[in-house]
Amino acid sequence: MTEKVIQLEIQRKSYGKRSAPLSALENLSLEVSAGEKVALVGESGVGKSTVLNILGLIDRKFSGRYYLLGRNVDELSGSDLAAWRNRSLGFVLQESALINSLSIADNITLPFLYSRPRIRDWRERFDTLVESLGISGIVNKKPRECSGGEKARAAFARAVILRPQIILADEPTASLDAENRQRILRLLFDLNRDFGVTIITVTHDASIAHLHDRILELTR
User: Fold this and answer.
1) What is the pLDDT of residue 1?
2) Which of 109, 138, 195, 200 is 20 to 30 A distant from 126 in Cα terms?
3) Taking a C-beta distance cutoff of 8 angstroms, is the pair 142, 96 a contact?
4) HEC per residue, 57-72
């Protein structure tokens, strides 16, 4: 039997004041097996990014339960959560969220600083990744010196360089041209094929959604 890496049940997720809560999600159930590729689709505002934040342990305020890699996340301490986010989860977001005071190289290799155990082949991984993404020429630049597409590819490299067990991607190719869109998708699915990385992608692009094993449509 294939291992379930994600078992999520959201009874209710609300925002705002208790006296006048705004419901974001209700009665959502999601199970994902190890190595599976799942696309989350739906109209804007249905809660796709909210689901991704819950899966990524960023948002924990909801009614329900969440088992990640077989562990109830409610039982994890703050330090455990931080370690899991760095080691087991990779985030590919619409905004690059790079640190402007660091070079592109330092941004990409930042996860290595918190990795336990240390990654011995970090240099090889770095060189291969930046070459594959076409950003070898910007590694010594600061983010403010780079284009939006270059920053998006650098942020992608940072998200996947540890080869996490699960990658959570929020519109990963939204700001890219056709060539770099294909580069990102090729690397994403190579990680799935070669290392069994589980992929969960939020997308409005039907052509990307259909590259996944399963499509989950969220509705209002």
Assistant:
1) 58
2) 200
3) no
4) CCCCCCEEEEEECCEE
pLDDT given at position 139: 96
- 37-77 per-position pLDDT tens digit: 999 999 888 888 889 989 998 888 888 899 999 989 988 88
Tell me the sheet residues that pair with 168. 91, 200
CB 200 within 8 A of CB 22: no
Q: Please, are residues 10 and 40 in contact by the beta-carbon 8 Å criterion?
A: no
> What Cα–Cα distance (Å) separates residue 97 from each residue in 68, 102, 148, 159, 208?
25, 12, 11, 11, 23
Q: Which residue's structure tokens are 């689709």?
A: 41
d(CA 120, CA 58): 29
Look at residue 21 in the predicted model and tell me its pLDDT.
58
Q: How many CA atoms lie within 13 A of 141 on its CB side?
A: 12
Task: Indicate the pTM of the whole model.
Answer: 0.87
CA–CA gap between residue 125 and residue 160 (Å, rounded): 10
